[in-house]
Amino acid sequence: MRISPTRTRVYPSSAVYISAKHERGLSHKSFLRLCLLPLTLVTAAFFLLPMVKLVIAGASGETGLWAYAAIVTEPRYRATLINTVLLAGATTAASLVIATIAGLFLQRHRFPGRAVLIAMLTFPLAFPGVVVGFMIILLAGRQGLVSDLTSRLIGEKLVFAYSIQGLFLGYLYFSIPRVILTIMAAVEKLDPSLEEAARALGAGPWAVHRDVILPALMPAFVASGAIAFATAMGAFGTAFTLATNIDVLPMVIYTEFTLSANIAMAAALSVGLGLVAWAILALSRSLTGGTIAAAG
Amino acid sequence: MRDRLILGSQLLFTSLVAAFLIVPAILSMLAGITVNYFRGIGSGLTFQWVVAVWDLYAETIARSFLIAVATLVVTLLIGVPAAYAFNVRGGRLARTMEEVITLPLAIPGLAIALALLLTYNGFGDFRRSWLFILTGHVVFTLPFMVRAVMAVLSGIDVKTLDESAASLGAGPWRRFRDVIVPNARPGILAGALAVVTLSLGEFNLTWMLHTPLTKTLPVGLADSYASMRLEIASAYTLVFFLMIIPLLVAMQLLADRSGTRS
After folding, report:
1. Which end of chain A is more exposed for a tag (fewer CB within 10 A), N or C?
2. Is A27 an interface residue toward B (CB < 8 Å)?
């Protein structure tokens, strides 16, 4: 037995269609407005209003608006700012170099164990800053791997988790996975014919890298470098766990707020930190035209 | 010969970087189930530290789950409709709003937390409840949901879908529920995984917003790193790893699937 597949279709008459469309056009517009309403309310109440309060609070101390100037004029805050920028810059540079070497290699060669290697390199992507801090303690802390190995090899315990080297290592730990992912994606999109052309014209492997591959990867360097820099500037959890006495901006904000109850200065420093991080990301976005984000 | 040497050193370098990232994680997992980490694995394996973590911190684990689920529900309810509206409307206003909700990705969590504290410190009951932490998590994770959904919507012809459904007589709400949401499902799923993972691990905001009665898992972790023996801190970290690994695997599978399809 065969069942006929034909189905009756009903088309609305054009007159009905036009009037219905007109009516729906109106309600569609208000439906869209309704779609945006919850987001608008939540963003206004829990983000925009608090941010305005923060900016005002920064100017509400004894010194008023000068609190903002103190970020650069007060020697202690200026030193902190320079420290933080240098540390974030060093993290960014080191992450870029490491991730480029590893990313190029992983994307250009297929070998057994490659997938495992990639999984290992991206696993820490979801670690919060506190956990990263703990990883550094296990690596270079008082009961850490390095201290254990050095005490066996040279009879002296090497402990640097709680110093600026430890903090740098921690920042590197959370930057490498992010940067590697961006660079691997960019390497995948490279046009192999450009390299072939360069080789055909007699360029050696170094020249191909210097003149073809690295310039083509520049947008990925700018984008992932900006994320690494902004994230390192604002990283709090790692410094908190390592309990370093190195003054980085997020730690100073935290101590100003909780220990010194200097709310105005904490707010001014937060606004300064937020502006720097936002400006770096906005700049890189205008340079590369992409959309990027920092987190952590 | 020279090529092999270069290749070999690249492999060695990459393996060393991977070891730097993975060795501490493995050490911490081992330390969490070792009787005495200082004496090494030779001292025997045990679950006593995991049990101790459960006794000490079960509440923080439950609260983190509660907040992650609540954050997911809120970001779904406000993020998915907004992503749809941004996509359909376009124009300056939609772009500006999108810019604004993306700002929390650039501004450090510490600054957002301070701003929330300054604004809502006077509202005692709200400030003391877990809902205060929820607001921080929603602000921080919302852009991930909105952008994941928008990414999928921009890849499909929303306008034609919407109009053909309309020509069949479906009202705006039915079109959104029966046409847009099913089509946006991969983006909603990706956004949801990102939101839950980020909420479970969020520390920078939560540390400032929590009270002794509203500790979350990462807050408890910081607490254990500072005051507990290494084995307990490690066992607690192990619990956290076990919670996020399934989410990471799911994210990877989702990415692979959409990768092979495109």
Report:
1. N
2. yes
How does DSSP assign chain B, residue by residue?
A: -HHHHHHHHHHHHHHHHHHHHHHHHHHHHHHHTBS-TTT-GGG-B-SHHHHHHHHHHHHHHHHHHHHHHHHHHHHHHHHHHHHHHHHHH-HHHHHHHHHHHHGGGTS-HHHHHHHHHHHHTT-HHHHHSHHHHHHHHHHHHHHHHHHHHHHHHHHS-HHHHHHHHHHTT--HHHHIIIIIHHHTHHHHHHHHHHHHHHHHH--HHHHHH--TTS--HHHHHHHHHHHS-HHHHHHHHHHHHHHHHHHHHHHHHHHHHHHHH-
Interchain contact, B114 vs A253, CB within 8 Å: yes
Nearest CA in chain B to A241: B222
What residues make up the domain containing B203?
58-261
In a domain, B52, yes or no: no
Domain co-membership, A105 together with A252: yes
CB contact under 8 A, A134 and B233: yes
pTM: 0.88
Q: In 10 A of CB A25, how many CB atoms? A: 10
Residue A8 located in a structural domain: no
Q: Would the CB atoms of A127 and B201 count as touching at under 8 Å?
A: yes
Model confidence pLDDT, tens digit, residues B1-58: 778 898 899 999 999 999 999 999 999 999 999 888 878 888 888 899 999 999 999 9
Query: Do residues A215 and A179 share a domain?
Result: yes
Residue of B nearest to A55 (CA): B115
Note the pLDDT tens digit of each residue in B200-219.
999 999 999 999 999 999 99
Give the Cα separation of A134 and A142 in Å (integer).
12
Task: State the complex-level ipTM.
Answer: 0.90
Same domain, residue pair A53 and A177: no
Q: Is A138–B166 a contact, with Cβ atoms under 8 angstroms apart?
A: no
Residue A78 lies in a domain: yes
**A33 located within any domain:** yes
Who among A42, A234, A278 is closest to B110 (CB)?
A234
Of A134, A230, A267, the CB nearest to B106: A230
**What is the domain count for chain A?**
2
Contact A234 B109 (CB under 8 A): yes
**A213/A119 same-domain check:** yes
Q: Which residues of A are less than 8 Å from B81 in CB distance?
A: 34-36, 38-39
Domain of residue A19 covers 15-58
The alpha carbon of residue B148 is apart from the nearest alpha carbon of chain A, in Å, by: 12
